[in-house]
Write a structure and sequence with these properties.
6% helix; 3 helices; 30 strands; disordered N terminus; 45% strand; mainly beta
C-alpha cells in the first residue's frame, strides 16, 4: 500500500448517509480500477479535511458572567423634564462595559458572552483584548421560553402527561412534536395525531433536555480564530435600550417663602431583565444627538394555544360534548396548585417624594466634566437591578434665596377670558443665591409647613440649568390671584383690551403677564414695568393686598 494514501481512509459518514449519495458530483468514477480508486480516495481525503474544519468551527467557549461591569445611563432624548419615568416604557439607553476572562482554544471558535443586557444593540458591540480580532458577531435571540422550547423540539420525542379530572390519575406517553407553537400544536402519539390541550383533559409536555441553541439568558457571541490556545481578559462594550434616569428635587420652603432648602436624588431606572451587581455606575446629563429609534426587544414568548369549535359538513348528526366544569373545590377531581404569583405594576410616579433629610447622606454622586456634558459618578459600586429603580443623593443646599411670582401667558384672542395665575418660585443659579452648581433636568416637589407639619404645596419640573442661569419652578395654579382680559371695556375703543388682575390675599404679590404678541400699552396703573423675557414682552407689577391693577393695551396689526 502506498504510504502517501495511508491517512486517506473515508471518515465516519455523518447522519448515517452515504457520501456518494450525499455528494454524487464528487464521485464520477464507477468503474473498478486503480484510477477510480485513487480518485475516490483523493475525494474522500478532501471530505475528511472539510469535516475536520467544520468540527473545529464548533468549538465554543462560554463566559457565564463578567468579573467587573460599568453602567453609564443616558436620559431619554424626547422625554420632557415634567414627564415622570415609566418603568414599563423606558426610552433612554446605557453604555455597558464588561470585563470577562476566557480561555480561547486554538483555531476557529465561538465565544459566548452570557448575561448581557436584554436590550443590547449588537451592532454597537466592541470587543477588545482578542489576540486575533473578531471575525463575526451574533446576538442569540432564541431565548428559552415555553414557545421557543416547543419550537426547538419540532420532530423530537417528548413526554405527554395527562391528568384525569375525575380520578386524578396521571398518565404519560411518548409523543413527537409535529408542528410549532403558533396558535396550535399537533403531536403524534402511538394512536395517531392530535392537537395539544384540545382533549378536555389537563395535559402538558415534559422534556428530557433543553434542545441545543436555546439560551436561558441574553447572549452575544463572537467568532474568532486564534493561532494558539490562550487565556485572555476581554473588554466588551455595547449600547443597550431600556434604561433612563432623571433628577428628583425636594424643596422645603421657609414660612415666609423667601428661602428654600433643596435636596436632590439621582433616580436610575432599568427596565432590562439583566441585573448588574456591584457595577461602577454613572449618569450623563445633557442632550446628545441620537436618532429616535426603538426596536422590539428580544424576549421569550408564552405558549398560547387555541382550540377551534367543532365543525362539520356531514349529514350525520354530530355528537355534542358537554364542557367540563372548572374545578370549584366542591366536586371530585384533582387539585391544581398554581406556583406563580401575580406581580402588580407599581406606579413610582404616584409615590410622594421623601422630605429633605436632616443630614447629608453618606453617599453622594460626584460631578465631572465631560466636554459640554456633565457626568455624575457614584463613588462606590452599586447594584443596577433588573426592572427596578435606584436613588443616590445628588446635592444638598440650604437657605437658597427664592422669590414667589404669579404669572400668566396672554395669547392674542377676542372676547372675555378669566384665568388663574400660576405660582412660580424663581431664583438664580449663583453662589450668591445659595446655588452655583449645574442642575440636571428633573421633577420637583415643594413642601411647606402648617402647624409644625410638613405638607406638599406643589409639584413642578426643572430643565437643565447651567451656573448663572435663571431657575424657575412652577408649583401650580393660585386661586387667590385672578386675571381677566376683556376686549373693549369701559372707556376703551373697539380694538382695545383691558387686563384686570385681582388679589384676595392678605399680602401684596408680584404679578407677571407674558404677551403672545406685540401689544401697545395705552395706560397702566402706577408701579407697572415692561421688559422682555426670552424675546417676549413682559408686564411686571405689584398687586396690593385685597386690591387690583389694570392694563389697557391694543395688539399690533
Amino acid at each position: 500500500m502506498r504510504s502517501d494514501l495511508i491517512n486517506l481512509a473515508p471518515p465516519p459518514q455523518p447522519f448515517g448517509l452515504s457520501l456518494s449519495k450525499a455528494f454524487p458530483f464528487l464521485f464520477p468514477f464507477r468503474k473498478k480500477g486503480r484510477a477510480s480508486t485513487s480518485s475516490a480516495r483523493t475525494v474522500l481525503g478532501l471530505c475528511s479535511l472539510f469535516f475536520a474544519h467544520a468540527a473545529a468551527a464548533q468549538q465554543v467557549t462560554t463566559s457565564p458572567a463578567p468579573s467587573a461591569v460599568s453602567v453609564t445611563m443616558y436620559r431619554a432624548p424626547q422625554r420632557a423634564a415634567s414627564e415622570p419615568i415609566r418603568l414599563e416604557w423606558l426610552n433612554g439607553y446605557a453604555l455597558i462595559t464588561e470585563t470577562r476572562t476566557v480561555t480561547i482554544p486554538a483555531g476557529l471558535s465561538d465565544i459566548r458572552f452570557e448575561g448581557v443586557a436584554g436590550g443590547i444593540l449588537p451592532e454597537s458591540a466592541i470587543v477588545s483584548g482578542l489576540p486575533d480580532g473578531v471575525a463575526e458577531k451574533n446576538q442569540d435571540a432564541f431565548l428559552l421560553s415555553p414557545a421557543s422550547l416547543l419550537d426547538a423540539s419540532l420532530g423530537r420525542r417528548v413526554h405527554l402527561r395527562r391528568t384525569s379530572r375525575a380520578t386524578g390519575a396521571v398518565r404519560e406517553e411518548e409523543a413527537v412534536v409535529r408542528s410549532g407553537a403558533d396558535g396550535a400544536v399537533v403531536v403524534q402519539t402511538a394512536t395517531g395525531y392530535e392537537a395539544l390541550r384540545c382533549t378536555g383533559l389537563p395535559e402538558t409536555i415534559r422534556y428530557d433536555r433543553v434542545p441545543p441553541g436555546l439560551s436561558a439568558r441574553p447572549t452575544l457571541s463572537v467568532r474568532t480564530e486564534a493561532k494558539r490556545r490562550t487565556r485572555a481578559t476581554l473588554t466588551l462594550s455595547y449600547l443597550a435600550s431600556g434604561f433612563d434616569w432623571q433628577a428628583n428635587y425636594v424643596g422645603a420652603l421657609s414660612p415666609d417663602g423667601t428661602r428654600m432648602d433643596l435636596f436632590a436624588w439621582v433616580t436610575l431606572a432599568s427596565g432590562d431583565e439583566t441585573s448588574f451587581p456591584q457595577a461602577n455606575t454613572q449618569a450623563v446629563a445633557g442632550r446628545l444627538n441620537r436618532s429616535d429609534e426603538r426596536r422590539d426587544r428580544t424576549q421569550g414568548q408564552p405558549l398560547e394555544l387555541t382550540c377551534f369549535p367543532l365543525g362539520t359538513t356531514s349529514d350525520i348528526p354530530e355528537t355534542r360534548f358537554k364542557r367540563i366544569e372548572e374545578f370549584s373545590g366542591q366536586s371530585d377531581g384533582e387539585e391544581i396548585v398554581v406556583t406563580g404569583s401575580r406581580v402588580s405594576a407599581v406606579s413610582f410616579a404616584s409615590v410622594a417624594p421623601a422630605p429633605v433629610p436632616v443630614a447629608a447622606p453618606a453617599i453622594m454622586v460626584e460631578q465631572e466634566e465631560l466636554g459640554d456634558l456633565k457626568l455624575y459618578r457614584i463613588p462606590e459600586p452599586v447594584t443596577v437591578a433588573a426592572m427596578s429603580q435606584k436613588q443616590v443623593a445628588l446635592l444638598a443646599k440650604r437657605g437658597i434665596a427664592v422669590a414667589q411670582v404669579y404669572r400668566i401667558n396672554l395669547p392674542r384672542y377676542s372676547g372675555r377670558e378669566s384665568m388663574p395665575a400660576r405660582r412660580v418660585y424663581t431664583s438664580r443659579n449663583r453662589i450668591a443665591e445659595g446655588l452655583g452648581v449645574p442642575l440636571p433636568a428633573g421633577r420637583v416637589a415643594l413642601f411647606g409647613r402648617s402647624e409644625g407639619q410638613r405638607i406638599l404645596v406643589g409639584e413642578g419640573s426643572l430643565d437643565d440649568r447651567a451656573v448663572g442661569e435663571d431657575v424657575e419652578i412652577e408649583a401650580g395654579a393660585a386661586t387667590g390671584v385672578l386675571a381677566t382680559a376683556v376686549k373693549g371695556g369701559a372707556g376703551g375703543g373697539p380694538e382695545d383690551h383691558l387686563l384686570t388682575v385681582t388679589n384676595d390675599r392678605a399680602e401684596a404679590v408680584t404679578f407677571e403677564a407674558e404677551f403672545g404678541g406685540e401689544p401697545v400699552g395705552a395706560g397702566a396703573d402706577a408701579g407697572a414695568a415692561f421688559g422682555r423675557r426670552n424675546g417676549r414682552l413682559l408686564w411686571r407689577v405689584t398687586v396690593p393686598a385685597n386690591g387690583r391693577v389694570a392694563l389697557r393695551y391694543r395688539w399690533k396689526s
